Amino acid sequence: MSTREFRFAEVFSYESLVHAMAGAVGSVTAMTVFFPLDTARLRLQVDEKRKARSTPAILSEIVKEEGLLAPYRGWLPVICSLCCSNFVYFYCFHSLRASWLRGHKSTPSRDLLMGTAAGVVNVLMTTPLWVVNTRLKLQGAKFRNADIRPTNYSGIMDAFVQIIEDEGVGALWNGTFPSLLLVLNPAVQFMIYEGLKRQMRSLVHRELLSLEVFLIGAIAKAVATTVTYPLQTVQSILRFGQHAQHTDGSPLLNSLRSVMHLLINRVRKNGMLGLFKGLEAKLLQTVLTAALMFLLYEKIASSTFRVMGVKRPASSH
């Protein structure tokens, strides 16, 4: 087998497909369980005039004003986007790992590099889905900020059509620049997760318990989320499409100006803590979701390899 054929087989492998399917199913299940927490986080990020309160208080307000099912508004487009996004990310990460490591031990720096590369591919492929689901999730919400314009999308496809007709194809990639910067979030998360997993296995010399995997996933996501949260806020605002963006320069320069303007404006209005408005809800949602996702991912992948009689590759450990 030639080197080119060998690499092709590594990229399009059964093992990578199992990891991608396990990651997608795990993330969809976990997000469904903790979805209301994400609703609270998004409202606090986008609606500047909504007071920062505890997550239960925000959810209580939403239910009182908009109905019992309001915390699950936009669930379907979010789940579709998340399923596609995690499938792409897990597939790319494990394909790159199989191709680059080739039996060698992984290191935190290699995990970070592979996570970043997988993240870039994921952002470029799935940003239009996230733009649409952000709009649908906020449609019909009762905002404190009167400047926010209402939207009227009947579904995912109608949202795509209206955005392209009203704002141009480029609007589907709103927030791509901060999203590319935010590839560090899953990259840091995977680096910490894989590093802690290796350390734990070397200490206990056995398969990790479900609680241990859950805690490792929670720690990894908590660190990654806190470090990158201000950029996540900017990303949400740009995806919502209500911010007037610069158009008098190159796309890259305009994106950089928009990011800096939003960050500076947030600090001027609310101080440095304004950059972290909604962090409590985000940490609750993302840490619990990531921890449950990693637990389900490990169980699904291990069970699939076992049922199919395939030995789990050493690189995935």
Task: Explain what this protein looks like in three dimensions.
By secondary structure, the chain is mainly α. The protein is 73% helix and 0% strand. The chain has twelve helices and no strands. It has helices spanning 3-11, 14-33, 35-46, 55-66, 75-101, 108-138, 156-167, 176-181, 184-204, 210-240, 251-270, 279-307. Helix 3 packs antiparallel against helix 12, helix 10 packs across helix 11 and helix 10 packs across helix 12. The longest helix has 31 residues, at 108-138. The radius of gyration is 20 Å and the shape is globular. The two termini are 27 Å apart. One of its GO terms (cellular component) is peroxisomal membrane. This is Peroxisomal membrane protein PMP34-like.
Question: Which series of helices and strands comes N to C?
Answer: HHHHHHHHHHHH
Shape annotation: globular
Low-confidence stretches: none
Specify the helix fraction band: over 70%
By secondary-structure content and strand pairing, the structural class works out as mainly alpha
Roughly how many Å is the radius of gyration? 20 Å
Q: Could you tell me the strand content as a percent range?
A: under 5%
Strand segment tally: 0
Largest sheet: none
In a few lines, what is going on in this structure?
The chain has 317 residues and is mainly alpha-helical. Helix content is 73%, strand content 0%.
Notable traits:
12 helices, 0% strand, mainly alpha, 317 residues
Topology:
Blueprint lengths: L2 H9 L2 H20 L1 H12 L8 H12 L8 H27 L6 H31 L17 H12 L8 H6 L2 H21 L5 H31 L10 H20 L8 H29 L10
